[in-house]
Design a protein that fits this description.
Blueprint (H helix, E strand, L loop, with lengths): L24 H8 L19 H8 L6 H6 L7 H4 L9 E4 L5 E2 L4 H12 L3 E2 L10 E7 L4 H4 L1 H16 L3 H21 L2 E6 L12 E5 L2 E6 L2 H9 L1 E6 L25 H9 L19 H20 L5 H22 L3 H12 L7 E6 L2 H12 L7 H7 L3 H8 L5 H16 L6 H7 L4 H6 L2 H30 L2
Helix pairs in contact: 1-2, 1-12, 2-11, 5-9, 5-13, 7-8, 7-12, 8-11, 8-12, 14-16, 14-20, 17-20
């Protein structure tokens, strides 16, 4: 058998061990965080990826036990938060009927608000000069990356084979170790089902119509309480199978003996109750513990061990083998950079739209010229359909004046008069009513012209013009809502 050609050009050694585990750490973490968004992504990690130290230290915190906590110090976070699927604070939510006010909502409401901000919107027509634009989005709730992974995988295996061909077993083994450790880690960390955890509601709960408010951006959520509550208080969760959640140990309960001064800590009992584990599921003498995610801890440790091995063995390799090692790293880093360039929040927004079957026809965005126009338009859209009496609103918990005050809390005589006129229109006019008659209600009376001075008369007339523009827009949108299934 002929010997392979001698392509070693000298005794020069390229020491790349110093950057072997640290280079490209942020990109590698961002790439791993996309693993649950694509079905086949967890099977495509078989390449020698840089940043093993950063990835191992970050995701090793999922493992929960004294041993793993010592190896990966820091707070134990839930999987969804570690993958940036939860944890963002959402905008204020005001329910139109139940009276619920949430100063801060959850991650899903944050995504819905960010999605609405991206919408261009239609400028509401009117003669009023634009003072401060307010964007109002109405949401009616109805009841290719795998191919790119071929490049780093092929590069890693080809460079590994080249090192074997020139019999550089040090670099050969390190590239192979990188392929195996990253591939197994991607497979294990990706063995989770991404689910949307909703909120339980009563069957007799009223419609969950309400609004999300974030400064000048308002989102109207129209639909059943179940769907709206899921957006305002629901969250994404990652549910791993039993193989990943396998516990590495079982602790025995130290039973107290009368007179020995010991007692069971109450905090353990409370923590067990929160985990939803019943005493009937426990064997006698065993202490319930949380899921430790020991498999994730083990393969995170393997990533750390990979760095230590590279620090020791890569300098022992040949110049050509080290070049092969660098090539595999470079191609893998470019692939991780490509994955990290994908907006994780955009993928989550798209997932929400798919889960709730929200299409373009279920969303409309308008840009109101003033805050008063936005306030009146929102109030008219949240009005219970077919009910115009004050008593009917009270029975349903609908308080239109409170909704307007969330926009404009001013309580001067001019603003009080303006709110009263807006409420009179809401009581008198339905979406099939005569627009001329409704516009007449939004005019100043002779008495009001006498009571206010010139400046206040001008202000009131301006505010009433905003209300008329909002009324016309709301009547058109009510017909659109009625036509939706």
């Amino acid at each position: 058998m002929p010997n392979p050609p001698n392509i070693h050009t000298g005794n020069f050694s390229l020491n790349v061990s110093g950057v072997a585990g640290f280079f490209g750490g942020d990109e590698a973490i961002s790439a791993i965080q996309t693993v649950h968004h694509y079905k086949a992504r967890k099977f495509l990690g078989w390449y020698n990826s840089p940043g093993s130290w950063n990835v191992g230290k970050k995701f090793g915190k999922l493992a929960k036990s004294p041993f793993w906590d010592g190896l990966f110090p820091g707070a134990n976070e839930e999987p969804a938060k570690l993958f940036d699927l939860d944890g963002k604070r959402g905008p204020k939510y005001v329910a139109a009927r139940s009276g619920t006010v949430l100063e801060h909502t959850g991650h899903l409401a944050y995504l819905i608000m960010e999605k609405s901000k991206e919408e261009l919107g239609v400028l509401v027509p009117g003669k009023r000069k634009i003072t401060k634009l307010n964007k109002v989005t109405i949401i009616k709730m109805p009841g290719g990356h795998a191919l790119a992974a071929i490049l780093p995988i092929a590069a890693s295996w080809i460079t590994c084979a080249m090192c074997g061909w020139i019999r550089d077993w040090f670099c050969f083994s390190m590239i192979l170790l990188g392929i195996i450790s990253n591939g197994m880690f991607s497979l294990v960390i990706g063995l989770a089902c991404l689910k949307l955890q909703g909120v339980g509601t009563a069957p007799t709960a009223p419609p969950g119509d309400g609004m999300l408010m974030d400064g000048d951006n308002i989102v109207l959520l129209l639909g059943r309480e179940k769907e709206v509550a899921t957006i305002t208080r629901g969250r994404f969760i990652l549910e791993y199978n039993n193989m990943v959640k396998w516990r590495s140990r079982k602790e025995k309960v130290k039973r107290s003996v009368p007179g020995d001064g010991t007692r069971l800590p109450e905090s353990n009992r409370n923590g067990d109750a929160e985990e939803g584990q019943s005493n009937s599921d426990l064997e006698q003498g065993e202490e319930p513990v949380r899921d430790e995610y020991a498999a994730i801890g083990f393969f995170s440790f393997l990533l750390l061990a990979q760095l230590l091995a590279q620090l020791l063995l890569i300098p022992q390799g040949t110049f050509t083998g080290q070049i092969m090692f660098l090539i595999s790293f470079a191609v893998s880093w470019l692939y991780n950079l490509y994955l990290s360039s994908i907006d994780n929040e955009y993928i989550q927004e798209r997932s929400i739209l798919e889960i709730f079957h929200l299409k373009k026809k279920h969303m409309r965005t308008y840009i109101c010229r003033t805050r008063t126009t936005a306030a009146v338009f929102t109030c008219l859209m949240l009005r219970p359909p077919g009910i115009y009496e004050e008593s009917g609103w009270t029975n349903l918990g609908f308080k239109p004046e409170s909704i307007i005050c969330n926009f404009i809390p001013n309580d001067t005589p001019v603003w009080t008069t303006w709110r009263k006129k807006v409420l009179d229109v809401m009581r008198a006019c339905d979406h099939d009513g005569d627009p001329v008659a409704c516009h007449n209600l939004l005019q100043m009376t002779n008495e009001e012209k006498r009571d206010f001075d010139a400046n206040n008369r001008t202000l009131l007339e301006t505010l009433l013009g905003d209300a008329r523009a909002a009324y016309d827009l709301a009547m058109r949108e009510q017909k659109w809502l009625t036509a939706l299934p």
